[in-house]
Amino acid sequence: MKKNKIPVTRHPSPITDDTSPITDDPSQTTDHPSPITVHPSPDNIVWHDHQVSKIERSSLKRQKPCIIWFTGLSGSGKSTIANVLERALIQKKNHTYLLDGDNIRHGLNRDLGFGDTDRIENIRRIGEVSRLFVDAGIIVLSAFISPFCYDRRIVRDLVDTGEFIEVFIDTPLEICEQRDPKGLYSKARKGEISSFTGISSPYEAPVTPEIHIKTAQTSIEESIEIILDYLTKEGYIYA
After folding, report:
1. What is the pLDDT of residue 110?
2. Is 207 among the domain residues?
3. Which residues of 210-223 are buried (b: 16+ CB within 10 A; e: fewer)?
């Protein structure tokens, strides 16, 4: 059953000269973003139905397409687990694609800064790209901090029920700071980065994620098994 869509802007934010480091930490304030007004599409734009359906595409791949959305603090292990999971899925002959927050900001979203409007647009674009992958019959893995429930709900509501799998990579802040692979926590503590998620900007943990991985108690290998078991049990992939 198709779900109602959350209204989001259809116009990208203007190019900014933001000098913040390129990193998947889009939050800039502790305020929650306000809903954005939808601008009506021009009358001459009409949706064109394709002869080939999502069902046909996914049937050829022998899998159920979905978005596996990894969310968690910077340094929590989102990208690491997503990468290992994709390798495991490829070995099972599944068709996948991995979208990573930093990589996307080097290309598709390189014109976006880290203010509220650009942060929402960042997630909206990723959601739309993920939706296209799902329509192509692909299992798409998306690894983004996406700190606010609102942002994640935008993406969930872009696709059909059951096509969005939220994976909460739950890593204590102190462990993320110890890892600090990009040196961002150190900069944030020194005040060199403002409104950094987990330090000076909040992270809203998922309330009811489909999968909850506590990395302090779970190895990468165990985490992958948990996710694969879920995907198999729910019929996204074959054992």
Report:
1. 84
2. yes
3. bbebebeebeeeeb
